[in-house]
């Protein structure tokens, strides 16, 4: 249940332009005015993801802390792991504002940020300065909009920031950088992942590399992508990023171009997750992302094939206090059904989503 304090804060933020509110929420975390629970875990919630020990399987999706400016407070917010970025080699402003819309009636958001960030250098400096703790921190890798060689950009960001993170994610699924999703095709993706993995092998401490995919893929494309991912040697897949689909939306902002996240994405992303679970057959851990706002939905993602989940948009409507509530709720669901760890339920309901 949302506290009165958090309800008042959310009401104030919702009176602001969405991107301005986003910035103020980060400042509130940085200044310490937001009550945070600290790490949240139980013996039943503790798990691993691609070899990374997690206090719980609830993660922060990339896009909220783009420039890695609030890592310390986010690590105290109850997440089992957090992902910052996306970072590109050079700073870029992204697309013109307005570029973020709050779809309250749909519990959703549309963004067309376009990888706005301060660049890999400043982000790497913040990542290097962080105090390591029990919550793994990963970085979403991006490419500059005007880059003549986007594969080189992904590798460059990994080379710069990789020594200071616990995992990295190759993001070829944002709809807001022209032709970026073209990199999900088999040949282009294989070449890109080979370059990234070569860079990863050169790190003094090789880290897990994940691939984040779009939900707007037909079954044949999902199958090709799974085959390419398995052959590449990467360590997991994040399913999924935002969608271009607008089916069933009620908000007046529904027609805005960009990527849709939040509640309407849940079913579409979970079906892609289940397809990947069947195709990879336990050979790669999967991270379920898209539309998670309740413990029941997090549990459903696990049962559809995920080893862990991520969320972001739900915090717009329920606040950051949602995170410990989700973790404790998931613990209760596992206990109710007689399970002692999240991995015991991974994929149990996969057939339901196929």
Provide key terms for this protein.
alpha/beta, 37% helix, 12 helices, 354 residues, eight-stranded parallel barrel, TIM Barrel, 16% strand
What topology does this entry show?
Blueprint: H1 4-13, H2 18-31, E1 47-49, E2 52-54, E3 58-60, H3 71-75, E4 81-87, E5 100-103, E6 108-111, H4 120-129, E7 137-141, H5 150-161, E8 167-171, H6 186-202, E9 209-213, H7 219-232, E10 236-239, E11 259-262, H8 266-280, E12 286-289, H9 295-304, E13 308-311, H10 314-318, H11 322-336, H12 350-353
Parallel strand pairs: 3-4, 3-13, 4-7, 7-8, 8-9, 9-10, 10-12, 12-13
Antiparallel strand pairs: 1-2, 5-6, 6-11
Helix pairs in contact: 5-6, 6-7, 7-8, 8-9, 9-11
Brief write-up:
This protein has helices at 4-13, 18-31, 71-75, 120-129, 150-161, 186-202, 219-232, 266-280, 295-304, 314-318, 322-336, 350-353, and strands at residues 47-49, 52-54, 58-60, 81-87, 100-103, 108-111, 137-141, 167-171, 209-213, 236-239, 259-262, 286-289, 308-311. With 354 residues, the chain is of the alpha/beta class.
- CA-CA gap between termini: 33 Å
Number of helical elements: 12
Instruction: Let me know the largest β-sheet.
Output: 8 strands, parallel, barrel
> Radius of gyration from the CA trace?
19 Å
Query: Which CATH architecture?
Result: Alpha-Beta Barrel
SS elements, strand count: 13
Helix content: 25-40%
**Shape estimate:** globular
N-to-C order of helices and strands: HHEEEHEEEHEHEHEHEEHEHEHHH
Uncertain regions spanning at least 5 consecutive residues: none
């Amino acid at each position: 249940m949302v506290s009165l304090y958090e309800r008042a804060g959310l009401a104030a933020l919702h009176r602001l332009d969405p991107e301005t509110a986003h910035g103020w929420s980060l400042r509130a975390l940085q200044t310490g005015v937001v009550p945070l629970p600290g790490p949240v875990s139980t013996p039943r919630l503790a798990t691993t993801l691609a070899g990374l020990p997690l206090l719980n399987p609830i993660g922060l999706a990339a896009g909220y802390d783009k420039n890695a400016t609030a890592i310390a407070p986010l690590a105290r917010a109850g997440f089992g792991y957090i992902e910052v970025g996306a970072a590109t080699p050079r700073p870029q402003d992204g697309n013109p504002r307005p570029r973020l819309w709050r779809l309250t009636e749909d519990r959703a958001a549309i963004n067309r940020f376009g990888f706005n960030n301060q660049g890999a250098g400043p982000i790497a400096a913040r990542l290097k300065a962080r105090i390591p703790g029990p919550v793994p921190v990963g970085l979403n890798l991006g490419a500059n909009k005007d880059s003549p060689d986007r594969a080189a950009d992904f590798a460059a960001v990994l080379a710069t920031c990789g020594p200071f993170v616990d995992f990295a994610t190759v993001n070829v699924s944002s709809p807001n950088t022209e032709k970026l999703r073209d990199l999900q095709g088999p040949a282009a993706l294989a070449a890109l992942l080979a370059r990234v993995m070569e860079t990863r092998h050169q790190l003094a401490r090789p880290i897990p590399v994940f691939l984040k995919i779009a939900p707007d893929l037909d079954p044949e494309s999902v199958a090709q992508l799974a085959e390419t991912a398995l052959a590449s040697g990467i360590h997991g897949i994040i399913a999924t990023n935002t969608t271009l689909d607008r089916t069933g939306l009620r908000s007046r902002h529904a027609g805005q171009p960009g990527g849709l996240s939040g509640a309407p994405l849940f079913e579409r992303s979970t079906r892609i997750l289940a397809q990947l679970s069947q195709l990879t057959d336990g050979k790669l851990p999967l991270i379920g992302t898209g539309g998670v706002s309740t413990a029941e939905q997090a549990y459903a993602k696990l049962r559809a094939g995920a080893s862990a989940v991520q969320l972001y948009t739900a915090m717009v409507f329920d606040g950051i206090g949602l995170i410990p509530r989700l973790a404790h709720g998931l613990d209760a669901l596992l206990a109710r059904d007689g399970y002692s760890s999240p991995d015991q339920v991974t994929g149990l309901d996969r057939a339901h989503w196929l």
